[in-house]
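Quick one: MotA family flagellar motor rotation protein from Buttiauxella ferragutiae ATCC 51602, structure tokens please.
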Amino acid sequence: MLKIIGILVVLVTVICGYLFAGGSLRMLWQPSEYVIILGAAAGSILLANDKEVLRDIGSQCRRAFVKHDDRDLYQQFILLTMEVLENTKRQGLKYLDEHIENPQESTLFAKYPLILNELQLVTFLTDNLRLLSMGKIEGYELEAILDKEIAAMVETRLAASVAVGGVAEAMPGFGIMAAVLAIVITMGKIDAGIVVVGLNVAGALIGTFFGIFMCYGLLSPLSEAMKATVERDMTLLYACREVLINFAAGKSPLMSVDAGRRMIPEKYKPTFSVMETWIEEGKAQ
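--- reply ---
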């Protein structure tokens, strides 16, 4: 909702300022300019990216407009990792087998539906729990593996916002291109009179305006919002990374989970005592 309000604020203030200065709304309607600019932008993004990135652009754009309250998600993350580590400590790594092979049917994961909806997190967690179950691995070795894995995932997921940001940077250039073409047409009508030439030049400048407006008013902020959705997803992975590294290094389940807690964003991060309360309540259920 806040992002929609932001778009409306940009549109209303720009158009109202134009009208207050004596501008005419009719002059803003330059369909040929918009076709050139938007068509060039669409073509460039198709040319520069593959299907996966285009699909991510669509999904991340949609998610950018959805409000997230992740308090319950982080609580379930803490409870799940605590239960996994405690049972592993008590029953051994073989305990993991029945749960990590098919987490969608696991009685353990079924208790945490919000986690099951985060497919990227579930895959990351189960794959690396499987790695732990295969044999002894030192904490520093696991840290190097997880850092590389997360870095590759971040690069892949950020490709969509980078693509939109690249188009945003090109929009002023596309606006200038449309304006130049309009000026070329105007030069062919130079003998039509000063009024006609003036109107055509004004129409050409609308293309430049539209390119700049799309860049700084819409696409650049959208690119940043898409980046924020990726960073939200990555926060869970970084928290999971800390839990696994500390557990592999021989820390207790509670201390390992606390290391993950410290990676949770400030507005959702529980205090250590609150985390302990969650864990005790989870055991009592």
